[in-house]
Amino acid sequence: MEILAVERIEEYQDQLARLLCDCVDDGASIGFIAPLMESEANNYWKNVANGLPDQSKILFLARENDQIVGTAQLSLCQKDNGRHRAEVEKLMVHTEARGKGAGRALMLALESKAANLDRSLLVLDTRKGDAASSLYESIGYVLAGEIPAFALNSEGGLDSTVYYYKQIA
Fold first, then answer.
1. What digits encode the pLDDT tens for the residues 43-59?
2. Residue 75: closest CA among 96, 52, 98, 97
C-alpha cells in the first residue's frame, strides 16, 4: 500500500472518477446520489484539483499495484480563529479493496500530515450507521452528535448524519 499526498491529480483523473462512481453506486453518502454519471465524477475531481494549489485542501491517495484503491481529503480551515483545525472529507475505499486496511492507512496518513501542519483538531461527519463509524471510533474519534434528516439518499429518503472529532498532538 502506498499513500501519497497529491497536489496534481490530473494524471489520476480516470481512476478517481471510477473510484467515486464505485463508492456512490455502492451506497456511500458522500454528497452524490446513485447512480453517478462518470462525467459528474470527473467534474467533481476537477473542482477538487482547483482547491489543491492554494494548500487549503490536501488529497491523499492509497494505491496498490499502480491502481488507486482509496482517497481521503484534509480540508484546512482558513479562518483566523480556526487555523488549529481541519476537516476530514470524502474517505473512499473501492469496494474490492475494503477490509484490507486502506481506510485506516489513509486516516493515519492524514492525521500525521495535519499534526505536521500544527492542526490539533480534526472533525468529520458520516451517515449514521455507516461502517466508517466503527473505523473512526477505533482510531480515537469521539462522537459529538447527530443531525436527523440531514442528507437525501438514493432511495429518496432522508438519513441522519453524525459528527466526530479528534484532538491530535
1. 999 999 887 888 889 99
2. 52
DSSP β-bridge partners for residue 64: 67
Tell me the three state secondary structure of residue 111.
helix
Contacting residues for 113 by C-beta, under 8 A, at least 6 apart: 5, 58, 60, 74
Q: What torsion do the CA atoms of 70, 4, 144, 148 make, to the nearest 10 degrees?
A: -40
Beta bridge partners of 81: none
Q: Are residues 106 and 35 in contact, defined by beta-carbon separation less than 8 angstroms?
A: no
Give the chain's domains with CATH numbers.
2-118 (3.40.630.30)
Locate cell 487549503: which residue?
A: 56
Residue pLDDT, tens place only, 109-162:
999 999 999 999 999 999 999 989 999 999 999 999 999 999 999 999 999 999
Torsion of CA 27, 29, 33, 35, to 10 degrees: -30
Q: What share of the chain is helix, strand, coil (3-state, %, to 5)?
A: 35, 35, 30
CB atoms within 10 A of CB 163: 16
What's the CA gap between 74 and 87, in Å, rounded? 6
